[in-house]
Amino acid sequence: MSTTFARTDTSLIGRWWWTVDRWTLAAVIVIAAIGAVLTMAASPSVAERIGYDAFHFVRRQFVFLPAGMVLMVAVSLLSPRGVRRLAVLMCAVSLILMIAVLLVGVQTKGAARWISIAGLSVQPSEFVKPAFAVLAAWMFAEQRVGNDLPGYALASGLFVVVVGLLLLQPDVGMSIVVGAVWAVEFFLAGLPLVLVGAIALMFLGGGVGAYFVFDHVRIRVDRFFDPALGGGYQVTKALDAFSNGGLFGRGPGEGRVKELLPDAHTDFILAVAGEEFGLLLCLLIVGLFAFIVLRGFSKVFKGNDLFSLLAVSGLLVQFGLQAIINIASTTNLMPPKGMTLPFVSYGGSSTIALALTMGMVLALTRESPGAGGPR
């Protein structure tokens, strides 16, 4: 395909092809393809169990994934200024919808995180994450380069607003991800070491506070440290699935965990991968996530644009941390937290929001013509 466009091609697509990180693009597409296969493997049993036809989730995900890939490529065509403008629009709309969720949202498992729009269930908090990462990076960068803008205060104020709305839903896990993005960007922007310690203490205090304030957090933590309390059904079955799958898996369609887990197609889809396709596929998935994150950092740190460095770092922290939380929850390395595995788990809002995230990463890590680093 690389011979399709000559290096002298000055068209929009031609310039994009020779400046975009094609390795990262390919890795994301491979993860999405694996996700499509696993959705076909995991979701029919879940759909039938809750009264839908067997391919209900498959059909929907086969709309979300191609749409997400097209959207990712479209966003990757943007300039840094275009990425900032998109983030402003996304953040404004997401915050309005997050407020609406608190008023008229759909409650599921004790949390109000979704809102119905034109017959579609949308989770606005998925879209506020990449928007926040870009806007906070912009604010931090503006103050760091000496412009007359209180960027640190504005970014911190936006952080408080976003986390406040998330905790009202409540969504502690998403709040942790947004907090990590804010902290990493603040640190890279030149945060004094004294404030690094203060923020670390703030996060520690927030974790302790969440344990005492939110019942579901306390129950999950207690059960994690003391399995004798009961619960942990999905995690136990997921571990059994990994054991049954071994190195090469039982074979496509031969798994049984998808018949037992209500979230086999979303939060615990890695267990289906382990049982039917084995440890090798799970390691491939982990390796692809690690490759995307590490390659993104290596490319953006070669450039000299502070905004791109901060924004890409925040977006990659969000992307990588979401994958880590999902994998660690499934393998019982941390208390369970309902969070999708990027581009692998079923979910419309998650897939589209992650496509926007990776589109922004690709846009901000594109190389300048004739240069070796990001624009």
UniProtKB/TrEMBL annotation:
Family annotation (InterPro entries): FtsW/RodA
Domain of life: Bacteria
Name under which the protein is recorded: Probable peptidoglycan glycosyltransferase FtsW
Keyword hit for Iron: no
Keywords: Cell cycle, Cell division, Cell shape, Glycosyltransferase, Membrane, Peptidoglycan synthesis, Transferase, Transmembrane, Transmembrane helix
Subcellular location: Membrane
Organism: Varunaivibrio sulfuroxidans
A molecular-function term among this protein's GO annotations: lipid-linked peptidoglycan transporter activity
